[in-house]
Amino acid sequence: MALRLEQLHLRLGDFTLDADFEVPARARVAVIGPSGAGKSTLLAAIAGFLKPESGRILWEGRDITALPPGKRPLSILFQDNNLFPHLTARQNAALGIRPSLRLSDEEWARVDTALARVGLAGLGDRRPAALSGGQQGRVALARMLLRRRSLMLLDEPFAALGPALKADMLDLVAEIVEAEGMTALLVSHDPEDARRFAPLTVVVAEGRAAPPAPTEALLGNPPPALAAYLGNGA
Ligand SMILES: Nc1ncnc2c1ncn2[C@@H]1O[C@H](COP(=O)(O)OP(=O)(O)OP(=O)(O)O)[C@@H](O)[C@H]1O
């Protein structure tokens, strides 16, 4: 097992969320559920931005509950790509290796390889303003790749893109996660994202994050809390 949430109990004001499950190594998992159900809260706890009230978070058997965010074996991709407007695509990606940007020739070569990998070969000298939304997402993805962390947390990173572009990006992330042997959790409102990206899905609803279940079976025969959320659209 890669990630284990052990009797995790989270609290934000009056809101509480419980989780007690494991995520297999190299899995791609969607995290879906109604707005306000606690999807982002769950990711925040795994990332180390929210201290659990009780319970533990283990990565490959090691207790990481007390580790600060930067020391955890994971990287995060949010919707706002957090690119620096004054830096080029190449420099923004290179932040994944070292924030000082003092990189060896070999490290710059790794940056260029990562940019090529996400389809940005030849665009490295552009600043974010000269890139499309999808291309900016690709820069953020290259930076994430260069961090070389084993767990990828994605919180609706491509929600602002059109459906075709979003599908392309999800396919690219899935391909990278698979090739690099990473484990990925993707928060989304859209069950189609789960179908496209994730063989397993965690449903967050009614104060609980349920253990990962096979996506197709879950969406085909949803439990009541999920059925209410999916409505007739699924
Ligand atoms: N700082 C806070 N203090 C108290 N309650 C909070 C705080 N931040 C969020 N909440 C509450 O925690 C709950 C979970 O929020 P969270 O953002 O995790 O939900 P979500 O499932 O990611 O929602 P969405 O899909 O709309 O992004 C919500 O009911 C929200 O109102």
UniProtKB/TrEMBL annotation:
Q: Which residues form the ABC transporter domain?
A: 3-231
Q: Which residues form a coiled coil?
A: none
Which InterPro entries did the record assign? AAA+_ATPase, ABC_SmlMolc_Importer, ABC_transporter-like_ATP-bd, P-loop_NTPase
UniProt-recorded name of the protein? Thiamine transport system ATP-binding protein
Q: Which GO terms describe its molecular function?
A: ATP binding; ATP hydrolysis activity
Give the keywords, sorted. Answer: ATP-binding, Cell inner membrane, Cell membrane, Membrane, Nucleotide-binding, Translocase, Transport
Q: Which Pfam families match?
A: ABC_tran (PF00005)
- Please give the superkingdom of this protein's source: Bacteria
Give TM segment ranges.
none
Q: Which PROSITE patterns match?
A: ABC_TRANSPORTER_2
